[in-house]
């Protein structure tokens, strides 16, 4: 069976022609899929029932997902969902809303999507990393997370404005399905989101960074650095193994040179581990002069055994970077009371189901 949500517009053109239908049927199909949330092929009312039957007999389907759990922050700006796909796969996805700027009527609505179930990268401070790797998500399962929130937002006259690939999993370790999902979500005949509204975050799959630089898609890239030297980085990201910090910085420079888009370095600040003045100064040494932007993410307090530094320490770390000429921001906190570490919600729900 092939899910219609993995079919690119050009492939949809070929499909309708193969089924003996005029090309405009492809646009009708795409419009219904991306703007009307059909649950099954018989919900595609714009196309004749003979074509619906032909789609079914040719092995096409519409996959569905159900909400197993939903948590919303007290201020209502952050919603975290646990979604279950038809094959019982469970993944987390998060919507973060930011107040509208003066000239906009709608808030910025960013969906944080997952690309894998579990993660092979094993970052020691991450609940998903501690879960091990289960499977790569298919493009349609990545798309489904965005469409699920799009449908919720549509009911209140809002829409998804941005995507960050920062949920469960390493997107560049599931490269082909991630790129297919991005093509579907940005194609003007499909979901139509602006390419520049998308950020892919990687913990450092260098071959993937180089490949991404060659794609004809204008997404932003964030690299999770977390440490300025290999000894410390390997403690936090054990799979960093073959790639040094220097290799990563070189990959970011190549990406910038090729695409003209600056790379953001994400840095999870962990109390007593990578938050000292000395470490900040080392970070300045490796990043200064190349226009790098660093986004500090005070560690989520719920991630196993690690804690976030005091606010004063975070600001002192930021100041050292700024004084050293490195552009640096601290990530805006969204719904911290529900922002259990990425992967935590799934882990907790599974424990409740099995115990
Ligand atoms: S932080 Fe990201 S890359 Fe590292 S284990 Fe967690 S999900 Fe994977």
Poorly predicted segments:
none
CATH topology of the largest domain: TIM Barrel
- Taking the alpha carbons of the first and last residues, their distance comes to 34 Å
- Which CATH-level-2 architecture of the largest domain? Alpha-Beta Barrel
User: From N to C, what is the helix and strand string?
Assistant: EHHHEEEEEEHEHEHEHEHHEHEHEH
CATH superfamily of the largest domain: Aldolase class I
What is the overall shape? globular
Which radius of gyration do the C-alpha atoms yield?
21 Å
Mean pLDDT: 91
What are the bound molecules? iron/sulfur cluster
Judged by helices, strands and strand pairing, the structural class is alpha/beta
Q: Quickly count the domains.
A: 2
Q: Could you characterize the architecture of this molecule?
A:
The structure is a single chain. The protein is of the alpha/beta class. It has helices at residues 9-18, 24-35, 49-57, 127-130, 139-154, 175-186, 206-213, 230-236, 245-259, 277-287, 311-323, 344-354; strands at residues 2-3, 60-61, 65-72, 78-85, 90-98, 108-112, 116-118, 133-136, 162-165, 198-202, 220-224, 264-269, 293-298, 327-330. It has a ten-stranded mixed beta sheet with strand order 3-4-5-6-9-10-11-12-13-14, sandwiched between helices. A two-stranded parallel ribbon has the order 1-2. A hairpin with a 4-residue loop joins strand 4 and strand 5 (90-98). Helix 1 crosses helix 2 (24-35), helix 7 packs parallel to helix 9 and helix 10 runs parallel beside helix 11 (311-323). The two termini are 34 Å apart. Residues 119, 121-123, 126, 128-129, 168-170, 203, 342 line the site of iron/sulfur cluster (SF4).
């Amino acid at each position: 069976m092939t899910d219609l949500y993995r079919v690119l517009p050009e492939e949809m053109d070929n499909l309708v022609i193969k089924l003996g239908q005029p090309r405009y049927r492809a646009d009708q199909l795409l419009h219904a899929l991306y703007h009307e949330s059909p649950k099954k092929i018989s919900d595609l009312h714009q196309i004749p029932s003979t074509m619906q039957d032909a789609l079914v007999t040719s092995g096409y389907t519409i996959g569905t997902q159900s909400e197993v759990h939903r948590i919303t922050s007290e201020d209502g700006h952050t919603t975290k969902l646990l979604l279950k796909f038809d094959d019982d796969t469970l993944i987390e996805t998060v919507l973060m809303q930011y107040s509208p700027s003066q000239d906009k009527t709608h808030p910025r609505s960013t969906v944080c999507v997952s690309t894998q179930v579990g993660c092979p990268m094993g970052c020691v401070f991450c609940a998903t990393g501690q879960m091990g790797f289960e499977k790569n998500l298919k493009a349609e399962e990545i798309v489904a997370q965005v469409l699920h929130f799009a449908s919720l937002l549509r009911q209140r006259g809002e829409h998804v404005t941005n995507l960050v690939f920062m949920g469960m999993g390493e997107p560049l370790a599931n490269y082909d399905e991630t790129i297919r999902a991005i093509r579907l979500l940005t194609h003007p005949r499909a979901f139509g989101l602006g390419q520049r509204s998308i950020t892919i975050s990687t913990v450092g799959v260098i071959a993937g960074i180089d490949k991404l630089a060659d794609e004809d898609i204008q997404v932003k890239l964030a690299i999770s650095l977390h440490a300025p030297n290999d000894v410390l980085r390997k403690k936090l990201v054990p799979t960093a193994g073959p790639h040094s910090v220097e290799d990563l910085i070189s990959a970011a420079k190549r990406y910038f040179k090729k695409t003209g888009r600056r790379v953001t370095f994400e840095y999870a600040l962990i109390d007593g581990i990578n938050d000292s003045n000395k470490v900040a100064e080392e970070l300045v040494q490796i990043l200064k002069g190349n226009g790098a932007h660093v986004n500090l993410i005070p560690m989520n307090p719920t991630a196993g055994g690690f804690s976030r530094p005091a606010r004063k320490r975070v600001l002192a770390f930021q100041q050292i970077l700024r004084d050293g000429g490195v552009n640096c921001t601290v990530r805006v906190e969204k719904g911290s009371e529900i922002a259990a570490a990425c992967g935590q919600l799934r882990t907790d729900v599974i424990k409740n189901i099995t115990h």
